[in-house]
Amino acid sequence: MAEDTGIKDSDLKSKHSRCKSFIRFINNTDRVVDVIWINFEGQHVKYKTLPPSAFFDCNTYVTHPWLFFDSETHDKLVVKSEEVFRPEPWYLQYQQGEDLPRKPGRTLVYITIPVYTLRERSLQVVRNNLSQPEDAFKLELPSTLQKELASKIKETLETQIVAN
Asked: Which residues, 6+ apart, have CB-to-CB distance to 81 below 8 Å?
């Protein structure tokens, strides 16, 4: 299932590779997280939904980018403070000169909440307390913020409709 996640980059897509990466994605937040794989056409494909503190193991390739979003609000989440996670080769976790194991270990990838700007976080909190886009125009805010807030509420409602 492809979906628009708001991140635009025409070069951001999976490329063919033989270099494997063995990952354990860990939801290190109190939110339900959508794990998104960017396929070979650049489409965003929901790969897995992780409850808080849950994890799943994934065999992927170093040329396959991944994104993470709050499943309910669609707010961006990060790995190592980056919106896009690009796997590294499985063998990089071992010291140079060390014998490689027969079975490679998984790289732990912690999904976290980014440090939002005060503006972003404020809009998220207000958005979460409004039910309809037109409610934003009832608030005593500059019109630019009202429009942005209405747009964010609309996006959240559309995401909830698609999910159901």
From this structure: 114, 115
